[in-house]
Amino acid sequence: MGQKIKGKCKYCGKEYTLSYMIRHLSECKKREARLDAENGKRQCGYFELVIHPKYSKDYWLIVEVRETAELMDVDSFLRDIWLECCGHLSAFEIYGTRYESVPMDDFIWEEPSKSMNYKLDTVLEEGMTIGYEYDFGSTTELVIDVTDYRVGDLKKEKITILSRNNPYEIMCSECGKHPAVAVCAECAWGGDGFLCEECSKTHECGEEMLLDVCNSPRMGVCGYCGSEIYPDQFTPDKC
Question: Which of 38, 69, 169, 181 is deepest in the core (most CB within 10 A)?
Answer without folding.
Answer: 69
